[in-house]
Amino acid sequence: SGELYCSLPNPRNVHFESINMKNVLHWSAPEGTGDGVLYKVKYSVYGVGRWIRKPECRNINSTWCDLSNETSDYEDQYYASVKAFLNGMCSDWMETTRFNPLTDTKIGPPMVNVSSTEKSISIILTAPEKWKRSPEEESVSLLQVYPGLQYNVSVLNKKTKKRWWFSVSNNTLVVPWLEPGTAYCVSAQIHVTTPLLYSGFSKEYCIATLRDK
Amino acid sequence: SVTEIRSGFTAIKANIQARDTIRTLSILSHPHSLHKVKPLDRCCITHQLFNFYVDKVFKHCKTEDSFVNRKISSIANSFLSVKRKLGQCHEQNKCLCGQESAEKFKQILANYEGLNVTSAAIKSLGELDILLDWIEKS
């Protein structure tokens, strides 16, 4: 392909950043280069090996490239590579380590819905969806991807500051024997046992139990 | 157990996979993915794969890194105990091998024997996440 003489310093720290299997390639500019550096990106499926160029990430000046579409089959593993160009010079291709979407993605926190009665609160938990190409595409919950997915739930009595912890596999939890007319705050986290993955905690959702009639 | 194997492998995954520079070939996932195996054949292929790792792979995975070597031997010990349990299933005819699983395993051996033994062993070790992802899927 008529490669130029490649003496430009290499892009650094080429790696995938993945959340809910939205897989974006990131890198840092070559050392000592200011503005004007352009990049091109290619990727390959491990075990198939043919490098495939990503046209939308050809001659770009940003230091990221969304490869979610190309790496959406999480039963495969992938490599990606970046090359830099500046003033007629180029760098070497710099590769990622092997990327396994199933084990290397970060999981977002669950959605939390709370409702209350006089002496209990009901919590409905929803796992995030896997990244999808378009809104019209059928949604796939991460629950389908990780059958061993569980929820760690924290319930805080705002008055007494007493906190309870629950670990549940299904997506509903009823916390009974609570004090009427009291505010409780709920936060939840996803825990996949294998491969071992934790999401961050959701923000707190507070609700008051109804007052005694 | 499988969880111990997974955590042991996670600790050395980057190191082992970096030693495997052959991108164009996979032992377990191409040309036929483990994920296409029928439920009926799962037990037999799992049994064969555990035998394969114990008999052929681990003994050729010596590295210059003592931490990595320790992790490899602990993974190998976990494989041995799982292999024994699978062996009991096999003896009680609960793990029957059909034509498809024989073909599948033959393909895996062909992939393995297509490389020199050290490269093949390191590549197989580096693909433990593929094996574990498949085992844990159901």
TrEMBL record, chain B:
Keywords for the protein's UniProt record, in alphabetical order:
Cytokine, Disulfide bond, Secreted, Signal
- Compartments, record wording: Secreted
The organism's place on the tree of life at top rank = Eukaryota
Cite the GO molecular-function annotations of the record.
Answer: cytokine activity
TM stretches of this protein: none
Its primary localisation, in coarse terms, equals secreted
Write out the GO cellular component annotations: extracellular space
Disulfide pattern = 43-95, 44-97
Please describe what this protein does.
Immune regulatory cytokine.
Family, according to the entry, reads as follows:
Belongs to the IL-10 family.
User: What is the name listed in the Swiss-Prot or TrEMBL entry for this protein?
Assistant: Interleukin family protein
